Amino acid sequence: MLELELEQRTNMKFGVKLGKSGNEIREMLVQVYGYNTMKKTAVYKWVKRFSEGRESVTDKERSGQPATSRTEENIAKICHIVCENRRLTVRSIAEHMNIDRETVRKILTEDLDMRKVCAKMVPKDLLTQQCL
């Protein structure tokens, strides 16, 4: 995903150098990337940065500790926990794993592609068995 975003930023920078407006650049990105286009506000933010003279398409370094809770090991453990008992809450899983609730929620929804249905965590695609 990051590669696609960097590619779009590079194209936005090119559009700015051609003198295109934010709307024109956004329309061109939608033509090329379709549903994978960056959000409109992000496009305008980057167009503004490039218009103001920014050259780098990568994010600046941020202070703080990098996230380490969303690892393959934790994803596998959470998958195992949920498969054993689908009625557990995000809070109880987070307490059991000793990690942040938001991280558990992201693992369930983004990494394991699950969603809540009648207080059970189930795969979004019910035809695919994800927890074996």
Quick structural overview:
The chain has helices at residues 2-17, 22-33, 40-51, 72-84, 90-97, 101-111, and strands spanning 114-117, 120-123.
Low-confidence stretches: none
Q: Rounded to an integer, what's the Rg over CA atoms?
A: 20 Å
Strand percentage lies at 5-15%
Quote the CATH topology of the largest domain: Arc Repressor Mutant, subunit A
Q: Major sheet, described briefly? A: 2 strands, antiparallel
Structural class: mainly alpha
Question: How many domain regions?
Answer: 2
User: Which term fits the overall shape?
Assistant: elongated
Give the N-terminus to C-terminus distance in angstroms: 27 Å
Helix content: 40-55%
Number of helices: 6
β-strand number: 2
Chain-averaged pLDDT: 85
CATH architecture of the largest domain: Orthogonal Bundle
Strand order of the largest sheet: 1-2
* Main CATH class of the largest domain: Mainly Alpha
What is the H/E order? HHHHHHEE
How would you characterize the overall build of this protein?
The protein has 2 domains: 2-51, Orthogonal Bundle (Arc Repressor Mutant, subunit A); 72-123, Arc Repressor Mutant, subunit A (Orthogonal Bundle). The chain has 132 residues and is mainly alpha-helical. It has helices spanning 2-17, 22-33, 40-51, 72-84, 90-97, 101-111; strands at residues 114-117, 120-123. It contains 6 helices and 2 strands, in the order H-H-H-H-H-H-E-E. A two-stranded antiparallel ribbon has the order 1-2. The longest helix has 16 residues, at 2-17. Strand 1 (114-117) and strand 2 (120-123) form a beta hairpin.
